[in-house]
Amino acid sequence: MDISWWGFAALAAAATLVGFSKTAVSGANTVSLAVFATVLPARESTGVLLPILIAGDVLAVLTYRRHAHWPTLWRLFPAVAAGVVLGTVFLLLAGNDAVRTSIGAILLLMAGVTMWRRRGGAEAASQAPATSGGRVKAGSYGVLGGFTTMVANAGGPVMSMYLLSAGFRKLGFLGTSAWFFLIVNTTKVPFSVGLGLIDGRSLLLDAVLVLFVLPGAYLGKACVNRIDQRLFERLVIGATVLGGLQLLLR
After folding, report:
1. From CA 122, how far away is CA 58, in angstroms rounded?
2. Using CB atoms within 10 A of its CB, is residue 117 exposed (0-12), middle (13-18) or buried (19+)?
3. How far apart are CA 30 and CA 17, in angstroms?
4. CA distances from 161 to 101, 144, 156 (A)
5. Which PANTHER family match (predicted)?
6. DSSP category for residue 39
7. pTM, whole model, 2 decimals?
8. Which parts of the chain have pLDDT scores under 50?
């Protein structure tokens, strides 16, 4: 891949942000997604970014593995699998512009719905998720999450909106999100290889960029206990809106 020094610096910064988002503000890596899609061809960028995300997922699981809420994960996985299959079909048929517009619109919609619900006081501030309408809600978000994560590695904000709307507190949010994305992103690898998104060239670039994930994850772990719950939620929603706008306006 022909990448300038400025381009590589941008990718390195984006990889650092991946580490930070995985251990502090989940959903912030939508900014990384936009950077990768700007420096690299949009389609190929998803294949380069996936192994970096998996490295961040491993670090997040090592940090927050005890805080996951597994009943929520088991509710989500069947719908997510369906979304991944739909995303794979969409990648085979749609162009880059259609992909970018669709994902950006979904992210902004999820952020808008979540802000509306929180303003109405609908969420409970508990460690475990709310149960009313749980299966329908998990199914809807799960399909969207699987679709967006397969198409553009943008499932983080969708799942963030689900976990926030379900009333997760900070550590439960991070632990559940960590396990979710480690499992989902790992299962996406064969699909990405089959689509030609991951190859020898992309893995060589990943071998260098993954080194920048480590300081980002360390910084996130150091900062997370200093971020209160209200600020945490605002940062997650803000990162989601920013990522959606970048995808729509690029």
Report:
1. 33
2. middle
3. 9
4. 19, 11, 9
5. MEMBRANE TRANSPORTER PROTEIN YDHB-RELATED (PTHR30269:SF23), TRANSMEMBRANE PROTEIN YFCA (PTHR30269)
6. H
7. 0.80
8. 121-133
In angstroms, the Cα distances linking 116 to 111, 112, 163, 165 are 9, 6, 15, 10
The three-class DSSP label of residue 1 is coil
Nearest Cα neighbor of 219 from 65, 62, 17 is 17
Tokens for 26? 């989940």
pLDDT, averaged across the chain: 81
**83, 150 contact by CB (below 8 A):** yes
Q: Determine the Cα–Cα distance for residues 151 and 50; give it in Å rounded to an integer.
A: 11
Tokens describing residue 156: 């983080």
Tokens 């089959």 belong to residue: 194
- Give the start-to-end residue ranges of the domains of the chain: 5-249
- pLDDT at residue 115, as a whole number: 72
Contact status, residue 243 vs residue 49, Cβ threshold 8 Å: no
Neighbour count for residue 6 (Cβ, 10 Å)? 9
Nearest to 22 by CA among 65, 57, 54: 57
- 188 Cβ partners below 8 Å, 6+ apart? 50, 84, 149, 150
Rounded to whole angstroms, how far apart are CA atoms 129 and 168?
6
Predicted confidence (pLDDT) per residue in 162-180, tens digit: 887 777 887 888 889 899 9
Give the containing element (helix H, strand E) for 29.
Answer: none
Q: Greatest CA span in the chain, whole angstroms?
A: 51
Q: Which two tokens stand for residue 56?
A: 């961040």
